[in-house]
């Protein structure tokens, strides 16, 4: 299947757009934690012009559904919904954590990935992923928001070596020091839209798309947004 998928993500400090046209990829990435709203649409225009296609030529619009910054997740899904509505496109939400796992495989070849994004409030957004032979990923356990100390207390060593990715490992290095998992460091901190597009291809092939009005973010901690400190998101 030669899919044409536009992917956007603003769930973390990384502002990212990618356009997959069959085996050809056009992408833009920039760490811009406070400028997502200024940069994301120009990035979309750039990749579409580079590929020589319009939104109406696409098969689907994929987006980083979170978890991540509450503000960033809302910006990304809002822009994605606007673009998809205007072009009458189905949407595909992809986990931020799964996208970072795919990023780790793309950059390092890791097939077992432990993802931890700094969630503030002494917690991380956490998940472990195992790559399958077809290139898709399965989640070991569930995505969750958790204090690193709880992971140290409950996760034991297993037969795998886990690539550690995401901002949470640095933010809570002291807390994670006693974690029993065999693990290796990687330079991968953020999701990128090219990995969202890659994962969205599997969902499109399965018919797992949603209408604009049914697309939704994943916060994991949406019940405690009132506890955020000013300027932290």
Textual characterization of the structure:
- With 233 residues, this protein is an alpha/beta fold.
- It folds into 2 domains: 4-96 and 190-227, 2-Layer Sandwich (Nucleotidyltransferase, domain 5); 98-185, 2-Layer Sandwich (Nucleotidyltransferase, domain 5), CATH 3.30.420.
- The protein is globular.
- Helices cover 33% and strands 29% of the residues.
Oligomer: single chain
- Principal-axes shape call: globular
C-alpha-based Rg, rounded: 17 Å
**What is the CATH architecture assignment of the largest domain?**
2-Layer Sandwich
CATH superfamily assignment of the largest domain?
ATPase, nucleotide binding domain
Q: Provide the spatial order of strands within the biggest beta sheet.
A: 3-2-1-4-5
Just give the CATH class of the largest domain.
Answer: Alpha Beta
The tally of structural domains comes to 2
Low-confidence stretches: 223-233
Which descriptors would you attach to this protein?
Nucleotidyltransferase, domain 5, 7 helices, cytoplasm, tRNA processing, transferase activity, transferase, 33% helix, Gcp-like_dom, single chain, alpha/beta, five-stranded mixed sheet, 2 domains, 233 residues, globular
């Amino acid at each position: 299947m030669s899919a044409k998928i536009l992917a956007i993500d603003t769930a973390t400090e990384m502002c990212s757009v990618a356009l997959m046209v069959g085996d050809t990829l056009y992408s833009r990435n920039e760490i811009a934690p406070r400028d997502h709203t200024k940069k994301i649409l120009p990035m979309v225009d750039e990749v579409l012009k580079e590929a020589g296609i319009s939104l109406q030529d696409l098969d689907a619009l994929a987006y980083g559904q979170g978890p991540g910054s509450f503000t960033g997740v809302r910006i990304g899904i809002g822009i994605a919904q606007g673009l998809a509505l205007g072009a009458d496109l189905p949407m595909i939400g992809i986990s931020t954590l799964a996208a970072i796992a795919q990023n780790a495989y793309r950059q390092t070849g890791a097939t077992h990935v432990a993802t931890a994004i700094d969630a503030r409030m002494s917690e991380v957004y956490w998940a472990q992923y195992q790559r399958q032979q077809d290139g898709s990923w399965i989640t070991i356990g569930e995505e969750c928001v958790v204090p690193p100390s709880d992971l140290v207390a409950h996760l034991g060593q297993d037969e795998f070596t886990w690539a550690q990715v995401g901002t949470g490992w640095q933010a809570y290095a002291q807390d994670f020091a006693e974690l029993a998992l065999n693990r290796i460091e990687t330079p991968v901190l953020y999701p990128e839209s090219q990995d969202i597009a890659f994962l969205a291809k599997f969902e499109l092939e399965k018919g797992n798309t949603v209408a604009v009005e049914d697309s939704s973010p994943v916060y994991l901690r949406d019940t405690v947004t009132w506890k955020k400190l000013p300027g932290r998101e």
